[in-house]
Write a structure and sequence with these properties.
about 375 residues; alpha/beta; Rossmann fold; 2 domains; 8-stranded mixed β-sheet; 7-stranded mixed β-sheet; 15 helices; about 15% strand; EC 1.4.1.1; nucleotide binding; oxidoreductase; Ala_DH/PNT_CS2
Length: about 375
């Protein structure tokens, strides 16, 4: 199979779908790998690095989209990229379709077979292709929040760890999954006063055992959530419903109870955000202020640490890319029900139920597509 990757064009997105080492793995299995010139520069990989690993460098993204049977990316295809997709082509990348009706409509119209990293599952309902980026985003959320709290960036002027004789900042982490756990780890490491909210007793028990007295856990009832948000200097939104739009847990009304200059970091923004007042921002202009509260809602946070993120992502996406290339998409999905859960759109049909429900499409089960 001819597999290609392109330079990401989303604002300040420096990751790349295939590292030179991943290109070598595909080439070693007998596949052609086409790489748009300059695609790897954001991670420090030159065109020559790809050529040494057996890839072919092509001049433009158009060459990749026109010439490759499968296109491997990182972020959802932008409008210009979607216009180059064609019927029968395989698109393997993050999609986050539920809050993005325009992208969904374009993918349906194109006839492409679109496999989304974020809905591929693992044993026990895990999301292994989302996990490494959730780990990165969770850790970055504290860095970003700490910076936004600085007075020069519009925040309260609070140092999360405090100093002797001055209380540390209060951090509320909404959601105790991968993002929330990693955010809490970073915040605890800085010496902040950390509270993690979740609705699962099992998650709360696990977090309580891990953090012991270094972080507090709290059941995420409406009252507890409102109180924790009101007390916090920094709130991390870390909730996820796989493939579906995130619930709006922090309302605009709640902003009025918060301390002026407090910060909200919405890590769920890829799925529409979990704060009512959120809208997606970029690394170029990462924050905005609503009712005196600083919002950080960058939709591709891991792109800022592109080298770490790309290698972490390729570690989990490459095995499935190889399976698809080796077997063809249909045989690969039949052989692996976890990979089959990644199929979101095929030949003009929406094959992921949460997306179909959210955006009003007829839902066609993957089993029906696979026959």
């Amino acid at each position: 199979m001819r597999v290609g990757t392109v330079r990401e064009i989303k604002n300040h997105e420096y990751r790349v779908g295939l590292t030179p080492e991943s290109a070598r793995e595909l080439a070693a299995h007998g596949h052609e790998v086409w790489v748009e010139s300059g695609a790897g520069l954001g991670i420090g990989a030159s065109d020559a690095d790809y050529v040494r690993q057996g890839a072919t460098i092509v001049a433009t993204a158009k060459d990749v989209f026109e010439g490759c049977e499968m296109v491997v990316k990182v972020k959802e295809p932008q409008a210009g990229e979607r216009a180059m997709l064609r019927e029968g082509q395989i698109l393997y990348t993050y999609l986050h379709l539920a809050p993005d009706p325009e992208q969904t409509a374009d993918l349906v119209k194109s006839g492409v077979t679109a496999i989304a990293y974020e809905t591929v599952t693992g044993p026990g309902g895990q999301l292994p292709l989302l996990k490494p980026m959730s780990q990165v985003a969770g850790r970055m959320s504290i860095q970003a929040g700490a910076t936004a709290l600085e007075k020069a960036h519009g925040g309260r002027g609070v140092l999360l760890g405090g100093v002797p004789g001055v209380m540390p900042g209060k951090v509320a982490v909404i959601g105790g999954g991968v993002v929330g756990f990693n955010a809490a780890q970073m915040a605890v490491g800085l010496g902040a006063d950390v509270t993690i909210l979740d609705r699962s007793p099992d998650v709360l028990e696990r977090l309580g055992i891990h953090f012991e007295a270094r972080a507090k856990t709290r059941f995420s009832s409406t009252a507890n959530l409102a109180e924790s948000v009101a007390e916090a200097d920094l709130v991390i939104g870390a909730v996820l419903i796989p493939g579906a739009a995130a619930p709006k847990l922090v309302t605009r009304e709640m902003l009025g109870t918060m301390k002026p200059g407090a910060v909200l970091v919405d890590v769920a923004i890829d799925q529409g955000g979990c704060f009512e007042t959120s809208h997606a921002t970029t690394h170029a202009e990462p924050t905005f202020v609503v009712d005196g509260i600083v919002h950080y809602c960058v939709a591709n946070m891991p792109g800022a640490v592109a080298r770490t993120s790309t290698y972490a992502l390729n570690n989990v996406t490459l095995p499935h890319a190889l399976a698809i290339a080796n077997l063809g998409w249909k045989a690969a999905l039949k052989a692996d029900p976890h990979l089959a859960n990644g199929l979101n759109v095929h030949a003009g049909k929406v094959t992921f139920e949460a997306v179909a429900t959210e955006l009003g499409y007829d839902y066609v089960p993957v089993s029906e597509v696979l026959g």
